[in-house]
Amino acid sequence: MVIVADNLQIIRNTISGAVATGNPEPIRALVRQCAAAGADAIDINSGPLGRSPERSMAFLVATVESATDLPLMIDSANPVALAAGLAAATRPAILNGFSLEPAKVEKILPLAARTGSDIVGYLLGRDGHVPMSADERMAVAVELFQTYMDAGCDPARLILDPVVVPVTWQEGHRQAVEVLDVIRQLPDLLGYPVRTIVGLSNLTTGVSIPDRRGILERAYLPMLASAGLDMVLMNVLCPESIRIARACRMLLSNHIFSWKKV
Amino acid sequence: MVIVADNLQIIRNTISGAVATGNPEPIRALVRQCAAAGADAIDINSGPLGRSPERSMAFLVATVESATDLPLMIDSANPVALAAGLAAATRPAILNGFSLEPAKVEKILPLAARTGSDIVGYLLGRDGHVPMSADERMAVAVELFQTYMDAGCDPARLILDPVVVPVTWQEGHRQAVEVLDVIRQLPDLLGYPVRTIVGLSNLTTGVSIPDRRGILERAYLPMLASAGLDMVLMNVLCPESIRIARACRMLLSNHIFSWKKV
Questions:
Q1: How far apart are CA A54 and CA A79, in angstroms?
Q2: A216 with B173: Cβ contact below 8 A
Q3: How many CB contacts within 8 angstroms connect chain A with chain B?
Q4: Residue A252 contacts residue B177 (beta carbons within 8 Å)
Q5: Which residue in chain A is spatially nearest to B207 when comparing CA positions?
Q6: Cβ pair A219:B174 closer than 8 A
Q7: How much of chain B exceeds pLDDT 90, in percent?
Q8: Helical (H) or strand (E) element with A4
């Protein structure tokens, strides 16, 4: 299970300020902190990029690359920003991401097809709604996979996100359990060993007490791992959560057991 | 998922001393501590009971009952001690346990049949060896279930333990993953929604650093829970592990989400 840091978010004041003033240091410091904490990759969550999305994303990508050799995930709903980030990257980066929403199929999917980049595909309806059951997620997965293949993309480059919703939503925790079933069943459903990712902190969106967020995330993460999750987007600056992620990886690995990896 | 405290073990000096001198207080204090920590039931692990197994077990059962209303699990390899514990109990207790070993089938299983008690059945070979694969555990489960039914017992009273082994054993962590498959598949295999239990601390037997034990147990416990485990025998005096167990229970429940239950 690959651990992707979700910590680099432009909604953080230090990061938005650094982007606005073109100051790379706060960004580099955060990235180095994430790498030291155990991240295997860094997600650049650019949020709304204001008036110059291309310049801002290019700056973010170049700055993160200057601080780490870890792979990057370029995370934006803006196709122009995604293209600019990809152009600025000197190493292969993961696009995050697309869904069946027509604007994304038209603008973002061709970017993946043209560059051969890895790309995250969200199991959301065409109108952007979150499916409310495992069955609906599976139906969306079939359509999304077909759309992706029709665009001439390589299935080995696709990473599906079944979309974890907050426990505070109606039926939120039941949906979390359905997501486990979806992760388990996707390879059979699609006839392809497709990779999967989830945003772990989505489970506790809106919960303001960090300790409560942490405990639920640490209970859910091993369930995801044993369901076969390939990548997890998470807060890597919570040491106990990282240790749980590493312990899951060791328990589920085919290597000889080693405490060094826990 | 029912949380059974594994903390009352006669190998602890305070407990063996209390049994030897007939002093109930250290036992009561530990039981109250377990109940306050979140235990749903108390396992009385009597270990080797010396020269008077009947008297010792009867004393343990009476003492634990005097300290809590929680259900008891009477845990011994000695059929005489199990019978004495059951006779001393004023409330239904769970026998822990039997396996295909002939002495246990002959001496312990009839006790369950006669009293209608819940009983734990270990998936061990007839010679007491631990199966080394999921397939072998499943074969043992079929034979054990048949043996149990042939003894005239009620399948609703059976609780199967697929036997977690230490990660430090050869292939130990791979066996831990196979145990998850066994838990998932047992109801289909036996054509009965049989309950399951595991001893969580078995995973880290022989590991001397409590912090290392805890992190592995907390990574493994949610995997067990999402595989469908019904009962977990664990150290309830580790607050972080109890919180993970409760968070698992809340995530996997059909009730409305409530932080009070986490």
A1: 10
A2: no
A3: 91
A4: yes
A5: A259
A6: no
A7: 83
A8: strand A2-5
Percent of chain B with pLDDT over 70: 100
B251 has pLDDT over 80? yes
Structure tokens at B20: 């030897």
- What's the mean per-residue pLDDT of chain A? 94
Whether A161 shows a pLDDT value over 90: the answer reads yes
**Which CATH architecture describes the domain B2-261?**
Alpha-Beta Barrel (3.20)
Beta bridge partners of A161: A122
Q: What is the ipTM of this complex?
A: 0.93
Of A173, A251, A257, the CB nearest to B219: A251
Q: What is the DSSP code (8-state) at residue A76?
A: -
Map chain B to HEC letters.
CEEEECCCECCCHHHHHHHHHCCCHHHHHHHHHHHHHCCCEEEEECCCCCCCHHHHHHHHHHHHHHHCCCCEEEECCCHHHHHHHHHHCCCCEEEEEECCCHHHHHHCHHHHHHHCCCEEEECCCCCCCCCCCHHHHHHHHHHHHHHHHHCCCCHHHEEEECCCCCCCCCCHHHHHHHHHHHHHHHHHHHCCCCEEEEEHHHHHCCCCCHHHHHHHHHHHHHHHHHHCCCEEEECCCCHHHHHHHHHHHHHHCCCCCCHHHC
Dihedral in degrees, nearest 10, Cα atoms B80, B84, B87, B93? -90
Over residues B215-229, the pLDDT tens digits come to 999 999 999 999 999
Minimal Cβ distance to B252: which of A177, A253, A254 = A177
Look at residue B172 in the predicted model and tell me its pLDDT: 87
With a cut of 90, say whether residue A262 has pLDDT above it: no
pLDDT over 70, % of chain A: 100
Q: Given this model, what pLDDT does residue A257 score?
A: 76
| Residues A132/A171, Cβ–Cβ less than 8 Å | yes
